[in-house]
Automatic annotation (TrEMBL):
GO terms for molecular function: lyase activity. This is 2-methylcitrate dehydratase. It comes from the Bacteria. Residues 322-341 are annotated as: Disordered. InterPro entries: MmgE/PrpD_sf (IPR036148), MmgE/PrpD_sf_1 (IPR042183), MmgE/PrpD_sf_2 (IPR042188), MmgE_PrpD (IPR005656), MmgE_PrpD_C (IPR045337), MmgE_PrpD_N (IPR045336).
Length: 502
């Protein structure tokens, strides 16, 4: 790996483009050639994972709205598929609809380092453009692996959340790079597209603060749509704000660490295998990633606590990120509000720990329904749970060794008689370093569970067979990466929603 220092440069210095971060990202993307076998296998897993969570969210309102907007944009030959519809639409709109479906349940892959990310959000726009432009399965894989490489590098090197910038700014750069790799575009074109994408998708983290709305699902889809449009403009010869990262009025100078910024980005050497996708991991439970180990810890503690009405208090000792983003350190009253939205509840670790402790399980739908959140005994327990930042858990969260990195915490439960029960869990059971790491059967099992009642058994089998052969797929075969569903039922639900402009 090559370490690149990224600093602010005054306009008068005229930083050569080859020394700019956007160019180096573009070069890493366009230099993606021979694909690593392990990375290819993991990319197949993530295609399966995305389909799992997308089919489970088809009849959720934000997904239906995105789908309705997309299917109003029919046209463009040959176009791209929209999950849940027979329509083929312009690829940026297919990316919008399918990206929202993937993101809605907060249930697909993750990578946590200096910042947060869901690298699987790169796949819907890449697949849409692959269909529209007649690419093959191996082309799509090259784009996916390149996008993950860029995404992980940015998330390792540049923290956005400390400046209250939403993490999709890194996503859009990765998607633009992945599209460039898939389409075999010149580095110059990809460089321009990355800068346009970053410039147009930088937004605040208010989308993940307070009363979290449906925009949390839309934000990554918006970034994918914007990246496709940026690539289209760059292919037509249009240029971008440059240098978008290092400029004196640019990203680093005014939105991140200011004029004294000095970030380190690690990118692979020319010809080196692209293996960053192997550093990422998926979710067994439909909740914010920092809650994954907490759910597993709660399930384990049920055997030790006895009747939960005896609990006086529960304190979760955890990392800075967990405490301040999904814990009581966020200072969001909504995280203790029984009437809060699903999007807010899946970012409330006190709520999640309470329900997991009571139920001993976690379900992507039942664990969030209003009658579950508003159960009096649950509310009573929930409001006894707080989080605190523990410097040791923060250090472990950022450990440079992936095998030692920890995203969990320690629970201290005090009962009404003063008895204290303690236990801790560093990583989720499904994490690569966990008790039951996800492998291909794990991804297949997740798909079958979430597809039950939505996708027939034969259609499930057909999709899984197609996904397993991704490297061999022809252009026409890419349609098989969209599991067949009852489109009439989906259309009837869509028709029940209010109309918009389109």
């Amino acid at each position: 790996m090559i370490e690149h220092h990224v600093r602010v440069h005054p306009s008068a210095a005229r930083l050569p483009r080859e020394e700019q971060l956007a160019w180096k990202l573009a070069a890493a993307a366009t230099g993606t050639e021979e694909l690593d076998a392990d990375s290819t296998a993991m990319a197949v897993n993530r295609v399966i994972d995305n389909a799992s969570v997308a089919v489970a969210s088809l009849l959720r309102r934000p997904v239906a709205v995105a789908r309705a907007q997309a299917t109003a944009h029919r046209g463009g030959t040959p176009g791209a598929s929209v999950l849940g519809s027979r329509s083929r639409v312009s690829p940026e709109w297919a990316a919008w609809a399918n990206g929202t479906a993937v993101r809605e349940l907060d249930f697909h892959d993750t990578y946590l380092a200096a910042d947060y990310s869901h690298p699987g959000d790169n796949i819907p726009p890449l697949l849409a453009v692959a269909q529209h432009t007649g690419r093959t399965g191996i082309d799509l894989l090259r784009g996916v692996i390149a996008a993950y490489e860029i995404h992980v590098a940015l998330v390792k090197g540049i923290c956005l959340h400390e400046h209250r910038i939403d993490h999709v700014a890194h996503l859009s750069a990765a998607t633009a790079g992945g599209l460039g790799a898939m389409l075999r575009l010149p580095t110059e074109t990809v460089y321009q597209a990355i800068q346009q994408a970053v410039h147009t998708t930088t937004a605040t983290r208010q989308s993940r603060k307070g009363e979290i709305s449906s925009w949390k699902a839309y934000a990554p889809a918006f970034a994918g749509k914007a990246a496709i449009e940026a690539v289209d403009r760059a292919m037509r010869g249009e240029t971008s704000p440059s240098p978008v990262y290092e400029g004196e009025d640019g990203f680093l100078a005014w939105m991140l660490n200011g004029p004294e910024s000095d970030y380190k980005i690690l990118l692979p050497e020319a010809g080196a295998p692209r293996r960053a996708i192997l550093d990422t991991y998926t979710k067994e439970h439909s909740a914010e990633y920092q809650a994954q180990a907490i759910i597993d810890l709660a399930r384990r503690l049920r055997e030790k606590t006895g009747p939960l009405d005896r609990v006086r208090s529960i304190v979760l000792h955890t990392s800075h990120h967990t405490h301040h983003v999904i814990g009581s350190g966020a200072n969001d009253p909504q995280k203790y509000d029984p009437t809060a939205s699903r999007e807010t509840l899946d970012h409330s670790v006190p709520y999640i720990f309470a329900v997991a402790l009571e139920d001993g399980t976690w379900h992507h739908a039942r664990s969030y329904v209003p009658e579950r959140a508003q159960r009096p005994k649950t509310v009573e327990l929930w409001r006894k749970i707080t989080t605190v930042e523990d410097p040791e858990w923060t250090r472990r969260y950022h450990d440079p060794d992936p095998d030692r990195r920890a995203f969990g915490g320690r629970a201290v439960i005090t009962l009404d008689d003063g008895t204290v029960i303690e236990d801790e869990l560093a990583v989720a059971d499904a994490h690569p370093a966990g008790a039951r790491p996800f492998d291909r059967p794990g991804y297949v099992g997740k798909f079958r569970t979430l597809a039950e009642g939505v996708v027939t058994q034969s259609a499930q089998d057909a999709f899984l067979d197609t996904a397993a052969r991704l490297a061999e797929l022809s252009t026409d075969d890419l349609d098989g990466l969209f599991p067949a569903v009852d489109t009439d039922t989906v259309a009837a639900y869509d028709a029940s929603l209010p109309k918009g402009l389109f």
